[in-house]
Amino acid sequence: MKKSTRKSTSESTGPLVDAKRLDELRLDFEIGLYETYLRNRPDAVEALFELGGAYTKRGLYSKGLEMDLRLVRIEPDNATFNYNLACSYSLLQDVDRSLDSLKRAIELGFDEADQLESDADLENVRRDPRFVQLVGSLRRA
To answer: Is the dihedral of CA 67, 70, 71, 76 positive or negative?
Structure first.
């Protein structure tokens, strides 16, 4: 029996889709799925949460903010939702609202000081002295 010497497409031309583009396609699929689901269930908290995260990962920060605002309207006393709202505001350069939302998240029980200092979404607020005070008060608590 003769062995095939034919190369696969990926061996001869490289991958059909690079890893970054594949991630984008997956996010686009996920976004479409959650958007469709939410048409019939507009207050589905888990879907809103996942869609907000997918929008943010895709760089659609305004749309991520919309989801976070909806979540906080549905569950205003949820520390995680307020934290994510702070992240969205930070990504959109709204430092004052980001800090207000962070303060609210901490009041509601968010206590991960290390996460505050390392979350890339909060990069825009870290230089603000109010952020340093918030983290300091959290560490002392």
So the answer is: positive
